[in-house]
Design brief:
Strand order of the largest sheet: 1-2
Number of helices: 6
């Protein structure tokens, strides 16, 4: 957790991130939420596949194997290495890392992500090639439960990450 700066008494704290535990938490949270996403799609709760849309950054068709492969790699990198650092910084700034804090932070992340879905999709190669449908805000055009799924999925991601990040690393 954040500690006071040595020699300073002005309340400024240095942020010390537990890099290994943040990245491990990111991998764990990404695997859990990806599993929930796959189950939701296969159960017919949503038609929204953020992995395919991520793949559309480089691929021109969302239904091809290239989009799925590229999207999977980008999703794993973002969920395992990029967002865990952001979450860890916030956890350190508030001086608290647990499942509840992570759930709240993830919910905010989900709200922002849902609002940005149309803007993101419109800038992909699939959209430029007219191969992607406009999912609408919170991807609501791709299933009634999709907006709730986006927010809850990110909240679960944050909860798992907060839970793992709160567990202290084993002494070396």
């Amino acid at each position: 957790m954040a500690r006071p700066v040595a020699g300073g008494n002005d309340g400024v704290r240095a942020i010390e991130i537990g890099w290994a535990i943040a990245l491990w938490g990111g991998v764990t949270a990404t695997l859990v939420t990806t599993g929930l996403l796959v189950v939701s799609i296969r159960a017919g709760l949503t038609r929204f596949s953020p992995i395919r849309y991520l793949g559309c950054i480089l691929a021109s068709r969302p239904d091809g194997r290239t989009a799925l492969a590229v999207g999977s790699v980008l999703h794993l990198i973002a969920g395992s290495a990029v967002f865990p650092v952001v979450y860890a910084i916030v956890f350190e700034m508030v001086g608290r890392a647990d499942a509840l804090t992570g759930f709240g932070l993830g919910g905010v992340h989900g709200l922002v992500a849902g609002l940005l879905v149309p803007a993101f999709v419109s800038r992909t190669r699939c959209a430029r090639a007219r191969n992607a449908t406009d999912p609408g805000i919170f991807a609501r055009k791709l299933g009634t439960l999709t907006p709730m799924g986006i927010v809850l999925g990110h909240a679960v991601y944050g909860a798992v990450l907060g839970f793992v990040y709160a567990v202290p690393a084993w002494p070396v």
